[in-house]
Design a protein that fits this description.
It is a single chain. With 189 residues, the protein is α/β, with parallel strands linked by helices. The protein has two domains: 137 residues, Double Stranded RNA Binding Domain, CATH 3.30.160; 36 residues, no CATH class. Strands 1-6-5-4-2-3 form a six-stranded mixed β-sheet, sandwiched between helices. The chain is elongated, with a radius of gyration of 25 Å. The chain starts with a helix and ends in an 11-residue tail after the last helix. The N terminus is likely disordered.
Length: 189
């Protein structure tokens, strides 16, 4: 059931600017040697296969556009794996408001300093928000030793999309943002 909720949650990722993307890679790996890939994904019981298919399509389209060729697993220079996760988050906001505020001067006279002091009362209002946060992790794996050579993580608040086209467009947007730094282009000095 948790896996089903995880995949469903990706559908609900918000299209707002709350998306955060992080990437990491192995600086020793020669990314310019890569030309072929395969996406490795095994459906588990309870998975949302619609979402998984959309993620696979978005990954394949983005990598093909970058010039990589999709091939059978045995012929791939690298594997692409993805994982999803959903966590419930809590945000606490506290606002402070002053009531009956009025300034008065103090320190009149030589050597006593000058300034303002404020009288009145301060009250606080605390609001607690609970929301779900979805995470998509994409790993690029070297098939020779099964080491991760590149990882991208997209995190966003969850929000529902009413239409399958909206879901597909959002997944495409997340994948494009996530794969912006793949392949790694090293600076030659």
């Amino acid at each position: 059931m948790r896996v089903l909720i995880t995949f469903l949650s990706l559908l609900l990722l918000s299209a707002c600017s709350t998306m955060k993307v992080e990437t990491d890679y192995s600086p020793e790996f020669a990314f310019d040697t890569l030309s072929t890939f395969t996406i490795v994904h095994k459906d588990k019981e309870g998975d949302n296969t619609l979402t998984a298919s959309r993620i696979i399509d978005a990954l394949s389209n983005d990598l093909t556009t970058k010039g990589y060729q999709a091939v059978e697993r045995s012929a791939a220079d690298y594997y692409v794996l993805f994982h999803t996760d959903v966590r419930s988050k809590t945000k606490v906001d506290t606002d402070y408001q002053s009531l009956g505020m009025y300034p008065y001067r103090y320190g009149r006279g030589p050597g006593r300093g000058y300034g303002y002091n404020y009288g009145g009362m301060t009250t606080s209002t605390t609001r607690v928000y609970t929301y779900d946060e979805g995470k998509l992790i994409v790993d690029i794996v070297d098939p020779r030793d099964n080491d991760i050579i590149w990882r991208g993580i997209a995190t966003d608040r969850l929000k529902s999309h009413d239409d399958p086209d909206e879901r597909r467009a959002y997944i495409d947007e997340v994948i494009a943002e996530l794969l912006k730094t793949f392949p790694v282009k090293k600076n030659v000095r």
